[in-house]
Amino acid sequence: MTVDRRWQLSLRVVALTYLGALLFVPVGLIFYRTFEHGFAAVWESITTPAAIHAFQLTLEVTIIAVPLNTLFGIVMAIALARGRWRGKGLVNAFIDLPFAVSPIVIGLSLVLVYGVHGWFGGALANAGIQVIFSVPGIVLATIFVSLPFVVREVTPVLKEIGDDQEQAAATLGAGAWTTFRRVTLPAIRWGVAYGVVLSVARCIGEFGAVSVVSGKISGETDTLTLLVDKRFSNFDLAGAYAASALLALIALVTLLAMTTMNRRREEGDT
Amino acid sequence: MISVTGLTKRFGDYVALDDVSLEVPDGSLTALLGPSGSGKSTLLRIIGGLESPDAGRVVIRGEDQTSVAPQRRGIGFVFQHYAAFKHMTVRDNVAFGLTVRKRPKDEVAAKVDELLEIVGLAGYQKRYPSQLSGGQRQRMALARALAVEPKVLLLDEPFGALDAKVRADLREWLRKLHEEVNVTTLLVTHDQEEAMAIADQIAVMDHSRIEQVGTPRELYDRPQTPFVMRFLGPVTRLGETLVRPHDIALSLDARPGSFEAQVARVVHLGFEVRAELVLGDGEEIEVQLPRGEADELELGVGDIVHVRSTALPSALRVPAASAPSAAEPDALSA
Q1: How far apart are CA A227 and CA A48, in angstroms?
Q2: Are residues A29 and A87 in the same domain?
Q3: Which residues neighbour A132 within 8 Å (Cβ) at sequence distance 6 or greater?
Q4: What local confidence, expressed as pLDDT, does residue B196 receive?
Q5: Which residues of B touch A164 (CB under 8 A)?
Q6: Helical segments of B119-163, H only
Q7: Reported ipTM
Q8: Gyration radius from chain B CA atoms
Q9: What is the DSSP letter of B162?
């Protein structure tokens, strides 16, 4: 099919304008505004104790949430792609719940369950564990919102490679664990890596759900996104831009990693 | 020897195997031949332990293996689509079974080199499967299966994904390899020519059952059912008998038991001639005859000739009821 040359051109212009107005210009402006008054001011703004703590907390939450979701994601993907069990369709649909439901609803539901007046909240509080308005709540919220990525990346890869290789490994004497480690995992590694990168991006960038459960205590339960929000609300625009630039930078690195991995993935596993 | 008795397997409502029994003699190359959906792959996979039967027993070399995991059956399995470990080199693929068994490194290396030599892939150790042709991948898969010195070798349509030329070459090659390695081999195929060319024994399957077991010659000359006769080669119907097109004699005068027919088409295929004739009752038949004979008769379209069967007296008599299935060439071309 050939598209009229003028059509082709105008489609390109529309697409680029759309992307430019909504993406490139705003993100570019953030960087411009951030460095408008020189690098020293930015450095000062992102090295305040509150900022450093927010950065550390974000990292900490990511380091807990991503491996857990990766493990869960691989196990779940294998169960979905290989298993024959009752309720598979239902579970498969529920995996996408965190994508479908607004993060703020997820945050509120966590408060309902784990809050001091929630289902387990009271019991946990008696045991000396505070979930809501504390780090465990942030971790829970982050795990919840980033749950589907690895499952959704790995399941189609598993389906595509089929179970021939796994059966061949079995006939050659390999047990379930050896087969997983030496055959299945290497075959899905780029799918897993891609899912992990997407999860990391989501964990670092999550705002809605975390905002509800965090309590936003400076130097305690503020993540990077919450810090940006707080500075913005307090008319500390320069500070908000600096923290945003840091987030955007992390996102760009993630994007770069994703692009490289996607290429590796599409080139096939060799 | 592989011996299976009374194997039955259902997938939901579908009966894939219906009370199947078969014996594969030690050191033989036996082919499971049948159209797709006849249950031959299911039978092979049950023998390999990749499926479990609903009823029946699998005995390999005198040991009941019915509920033994595939890992401990001592089998080698080759898949239609190679099932190569794509992220491993040829060497690592072939070495897989040995490294799983934690054999010493130098022993593994020596064994791998030896096997690659046998399958004609010496020097390909460091390649990846994606750098091999289909035929080479399947030979690698065979080396991989043979590396663990299996008691029996199970091949599921091993040449099914290859083009005709490579397929014919590999077929010959597998026959020679079998004579060299001499491991009891069971091969699934839907290609009757392939089965006839390499097997000592053929088990013909249809509709989840084994129709007949025998040497290629027995099956070709003395098929016990119309299905087996049709599946093993071209057939044509002469009165109430099924005969091979080359078992029909033509003459210009009437002979005892002959039918009158009119020549509809004559095709010269090199050394032989194929003639399409129409019998008095409108039934079309096909006759194959040597070129010399055809020349002597001076066959021409529209000529009236007399045809009679020269097949052994044991030729199949087909009851009129089974006539509708007379044209069933799909299984052959599949």
Answers
A1: 11
A2: no
A3: A110, A111, A114, A115, A116, A118, A121, A213, A215
A4: 94
A5: 79, 81-83
A6: 134-147
A7: 0.84
A8: 24
A9: S
Q: Determine the residue of chain B that is closest to A162 in CA distance.
A: B83
Question: In this structure, are A133 and A4 located in the same domain?
Answer: no
Expressed in percent and rounded to 5, the helix, strand and coil fractions of chain B are 35, 30, 35
* Residue of B71, B77, B79 lying closest to A174 (CB–CB): B71
Strands B201-206 and B209-214: antiparallel
A19 plus A50 within the same structural domain: no
DSSP E strand stretches across B224-300: 236-238, 241-243, 248-251, 259-269, 272-279, 284-290
What tens digit of pLDDT does each residue of B288-306 get? Answer: 989 888 888 888 888 899 9
- Count of CB atoms within 10 A of residue A17's CB? 10
Is residue A21 domain-shared with residue A140, that is, in the same domain?
Answer: no
Query: Are both A18 and A86 inside the same structural domain?
Result: no
| CATH at residue A187 | 1.10.3720.10
Q: What is the DSSP letter of B318?
A: P
Nearest chain A residue (CA) to B84: A165
Judged on CB neighbours under 10 Å (0-12, 13-18, 19+), A179 is buried
In 3D space, the residue among B191, B198, B150, B149 whose CA is nearest the CA of residue B174 turns out to be B198
Residues of B in contact with A175 (CB under 8 A): 71
Give the C-alpha distances (Å, rounded to integers) separating B113 from A177, B83, B126: 28, 21, 12
| Confidence category of residue A238, pLDDT binned at 50, 70, 90 | confident
Question: At a CB cut-off of 8 Å and minimum separation 6, what does B71 contact?
Answer: A170, A171, A173, A174, A175
| B75-78 vs B152-156, strand pairing mode | parallel
Residue range of the domain that includes A209 = 39-266
Residue B281's H or E segment, with its range, is none
pTM, full prediction: 0.83
CA distance B318 to B326: 10
Q: Are A215 and A141 in contact (CB under 8 A)?
A: no
**37-96 in chain B: CB under 8 A from chain A:** 48-50, 69-73, 75-77, 79, 81-88, 96
Q: Is the Cβ–Cβ distance between B83 and B74 less than 8 Å?
A: no
Residue with the two structure tokens 């529209």: B302
Sites in chain B below the pLDDT cut of 50: 320-334
Per DSSP, chain B holds a count of helices (H) and strands (E) of: 10, 17
Residue in chain B closest to A176 (alpha carbons) equals B71
Based on the fold, state whether residues A220 and A153 are members of the same structural domain: yes
Q: Are residue A162 and residue A237 in the same domain, yes or no?
A: yes
* Residues B260-280: b if buried by 16+ CB within 10 A, e if exposed: ebebeebeeeeebbbbbbebe
| Residue B270 to residues A171, B164, B273, B274, B291, Cα–Cα distance (Å) | 47, 21, 7, 10, 8
For every residue of A84-153, DSSP letters joined together read --TTHHHHHHHHTHHHHS-HHHHHHHHHHHHSTTSTTHHHHHHTT---TTSHHHHHHHHHHHHTHHHHHH
Tally of domains within chain A? 2
Q: Do B83 and A270 touch (CB under 8 A)?
A: no
